[in-house]
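Worked example 2:
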Amino acid sequence: MVSYEPLRGMKDYFGEDAEKIRYLEEKFIKIVKKFGYMEAITPILEEFELFALKGGEELRKTMYTFIDKGGREVALRPEFTPSMVRLFLNSMQHLPKPVRLYYSGTVYRYDEPQFGRYREFRQAGIEMLGEYSINADLEVLSILWEFFKEINLENVTIKMNNIAIYRELFSFLKLSEDQEEHLLHLIDKGNKDSVIEYLSKIAEPKILNIIKLILYNSISKESDLIGMVKDIGNSYSKDLESQISRLFTIYEMLSKFNIPIKVDLSLVRGLAYYTGVIFEVVHPSVNFSIAGGGRYDNLVQLYGGPSTPSIGFAIGVERVLAVLQNLKIKDNERKMVIVPLDENVMDYALKVLFLLHENDIPVILNTKNVSLSKLIPNLLDTNINIVIIIGENEKKENKVSIKDLSTRQQNSISLNDLLPYIRQII
């Protein structure tokens, strides 16, 4: 016996739930197109190594992977960025930089299902490939904010950090790439004490103290942090000061426009390819982020391409809907149906149907073989309130009869007058 239930961690959507998903996607596309982004559609199935190379510990553990019939190890995409980078390397290197891409679609992770976390879920996002300037960071964060303004979602906060600060501090300690990735993974999972315990055995006191302060958000001023970094002495790096200044410059710039942005020096995101500014969007009604992204300046090069600094973000569509639980899709249009009273008038009914559709007026054709009196209760149950009735007399006189089920009024309208009449009542 076939089960009617979807697989665990996956969900069917129909009717209003499906409309809400499309509503958010359409709002997102409206915003990104204003900024000049073009759509990219990539396969759901990719080579495993594409995602495993720099996905991070957690992502590698939760990927849907299998060996295909050609003996290749493949994976259902757990996110979009590696696919966008592969597309860029395969088809877009010749384009003027930066290349601006947007996408929307399903991704797959074998997580333990819970509220706000599914095994199949939807992301909508952007990637800007080929630009390192702070202007690129500002553009991407502005797009993110414009989306949340567009859907009227209040009380969101954009938390922001620069993961290069951690990477630069770790480089002083000569940690291996695997050690660095593991420590960042622990921070992302909130295991800060484990990080300090590990570093206390290998880090010199000044560096350990800085990491402690930023890890527990005990320092918040740019000048204080730069002063402490300079105090390291010979180990001091101009790159580190530059990354600190970049973070606070972005914060100060966006704060001028009342964007709810907050510097959180303890913020780390799970994907191992992040190299610079990172950010995520949170809302007080849920305990998970609803969007996030950051700068990944080495990923294109890691895949064998030229140096191509890049930045992007992804919005969790279902996660945003979890916050917008009371979202109502406005549908003020009055719904109509054409009811041919017998087969002899079907040609005329189709003529009316095509006329309305050619003029972008939605109307359905009744297919039930029942009398009009028996049909009306069914129409009311499906929120149809205007009935275009076509019988032998209507066909002969080139007219239609229009019955308004909400007022019970019925009028006879010539076909020549139908369009202006319909536009007036819907």
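The chain has two domains: 15-323, 335-425. The longest helix spans residues 15-34.
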